[in-house]
Each structure stands twice: as structure tokens, then as C-alpha cells.
Amino acid sequence: MKTIAIGVDVGGSHVSCMAYDLEKKNLLTDSISERDLNNHAQPAEIIAAWGGVIKETIDIVGSDRVNGVGFAMPGPFDYVNGISLFQGLNGKYENTYGLNVSNELRKMLNLSNGFKIRLINDAAAFAIGEDQVGKAKSYHRSLSITLGTGLGSAFIKDGLPVVEGAEVPENGCMWHLPFENGIADDYFSTRGLLSRFEKISGKKLQDVKQIADLAKTNRYVHELFDDFGVKMGVFLQPWIEKFGIEVLVMGGNISRAYHLYGDGLRGYLETTNLKMDIAVSELKETAAFIGSATLVDDAFYNSVLPALHKM
């Protein structure tokens, strides 16, 4: 019986995948395949990179065991029909615009037209993974956010993403919401932290880890991260209330610095008398493998399909 699904996580300059046992709900960690890629490359090169990692993982686990492939894919994307809508506004994959990714991958991998290749927003895949087997597993209503090059988010209610209605922002996304002098994505992201650190310290660094590593010796670091945590509380608080969030799960590279901004976040939320749990993902990037692979399960896919139309 084919119980294995391949979960693929597409990043800005990197793609990786891993096999997942849908029945046992566990990752086959020795099946990981990954490679770097040029996101400004021509479509054939990008499809070759995405398809290449899938082939490597399928070869490891055996094609006779694989039931399908699920993609955790950043937007904009037509997730239902498998068509790229990247136009270069987010600085990546612009040459794939209009490409039917599902069909191209089937051709490249010599797969039948009926072979399942299903796609979902990468932040939603992360949130589903956390809900299935991670920090949100024992809760009905969760918000999972990814903090890195941008702000990803997904609201989950009873196992499914919520993308419409008064209790969530439009499309269930928060990156585009106004915050301070710009949008949330400008503030709660790597570029936002690097920019603010340079402004208060005069030093230009390359990534958040470099800032976090200075915590013991640089007085500006605590000021910066405390502000980050408090402001995150200010930004999230209305949606925590509206959705009735029971647990906030954080992933992405910046979540590794939670020990520096967690007090600010929790402290602010306590002043608003909000009762909820906060957790840092232990699954990290593998949550997206789980969430995307779960799409291969037909019953789950049919349940999530209405939300996919709105992502």
C-alpha cells in the first residue's frame, strides 16, 4: 500500500524535501534531499531543481511506496491549479509566471497525469504541520507565524486553515497589514531587524544571528529585541482576541532568538489580560514537509480545498 507522501519546501534560494508516512505520521529523516538554486533562472532550470530533489527522495524510499507530492510554496500562486503567479514583485521566480508547475514536474519526472502533485502556501503548510504533530496539536485554535525574510502566518481552526471571515485578516495573511510607517513585513523580518540595529548602533550586519550573538556585549541588542517582542504583541493582540487563539507557535530563523524577545512579547500580552500559550517550534523547517505532504491524503485535501481557493 502506498502510504508515503513527499513534502517539498520551496524557499527563495533553496529547495528541500523529505518523505512522510501518512499512516504512522512520522518523517523518514534519512530521505531528505536539498539543493540551492537561482530564483531568477529560466523555468527549465527551476523545474529541474525542484524535480531533482523529488526524484532523489523518491529513489531513496522507492517509487512503489509513494502516493504523491505536496508543495509548501510561497505566493502568489494558484495553488488549486498548480500555476505560478510570481511576477517579480517579491523578487523571485518571476520567469515562471503562468507556468503550470504540476504539469511540468510530471513531464520531467515521467509521472502519469493522475499522479498527485498538490500545493499550498508555505506558511499554511508550516501551521498544518504544527497542528498535526507539533506544538499546536492539542489546541483547537492556533496561530502559527514564521519570522525570517518575511512574515508568514496561518490561522488554524480544528485542523484547517481559516482564510476568510471577520475573525481573520484578508486571506488569513498578516504580512501586508499596516504597521507603524509601513507594513508588518517590513518590521517583523530580517531586513527590519538589521535596519533598526544599524540605525541605533551604526553597525551594518548580515543576518539576525550576528545580532543575537552580540547579546552579551552590546547594549543595543536587548533594546532592539525587547522592542521587537513588545511591538509583536501590539500587532498580534487584536487578532488573538478576534480569533480566540489558544496557542501562538513561532518558527523561522528569527524564532531562534526567542530568548531575547519572548519576555517583551509575553509581558505586553499579560498587560492585555490575554490567556494563551506561546511556543517555539521544535519541528522548525520540517513542519512544512509534514503540512505539504498531508495534502496527499484525499480526505484532508478535500477539506482544505475551499481555503486553497482563497490563498
Structure, explained:
The chain has helices spanning 43-61, 101-109, 122-133, 184-187, 190-201, 208-212, 219-243, 258-271, 286-293, 298-308; strands spanning 4-10, 14-21, 26-36, 66-73, 77-78, 83-84, 116-121, 141-147, 151-157, 160-161, 178-179, 182-183, 247-251, 277-280. By secondary structure, the protein is α/β, with parallel strands linked by helices. The strands form 4 sheets. It has a 5-stranded mixed sheet. Strands 10-9-8-13-14 form a 5-stranded mixed sheet. The longest helix is centred in the C-terminal third of the chain and has 25 residues, at 219-243. The two termini are 32 Å apart. The model has no long low-confidence stretch (mean pLDDT 94).
List the helices and strands and how they pair.
Layout: E1 4-10, E2 14-21, E3 26-36, H1 43-61, E4 66-73, E5 77-78, E6 83-84, H2 101-109, E7 116-121, H3 122-133, E8 141-147, E9 151-157, E10 160-161, E11 178-179, E12 182-183, H4 184-187, H5 190-201, H6 208-212, H7 219-243, E13 247-251, H8 258-271, E14 277-280, H9 286-293, H10 298-308
Parallel strand pairs: 1-4, 4-7, 8-13, 13-14
Antiparallel strand pairs: 1-2, 2-3, 5-6, 8-9, 9-10, 11-12
Helix pairs in contact: 1-2, 3-9, 5-7, 7-8
Name its key features.
311 residues, alpha/beta, Nucleotidyltransferase, domain 5, 2 domains, 5-stranded mixed sheet, 10 helices, 23% strand, globular
- Give the tally of β-strands: 14
Q: In the CATH classification, which architecture of the largest domain applies? A: 2-Layer Sandwich
Summed over residues and divided by their number, the pLDDT gives a mean of: 94
Question: Order of strands across the biggest sheet?
Answer: 3-2-1-4-7
Instruction: Count every helix, treating DSSP H or I runs of 4 or more residues as helices.
Output: 10
Envelope shape: globular
Largest β sheet strand count, sense and barrel closure: 5 strands, mixed
Q: What is the assembly state of the chains in this entry?
A: single chain
CATH classification class of the largest domain: Alpha Beta
Helical/strand content category = alpha/beta
How much beta, percentage-wise? 15-25%
Please give the share of residues in helix.
Answer: 25-40%
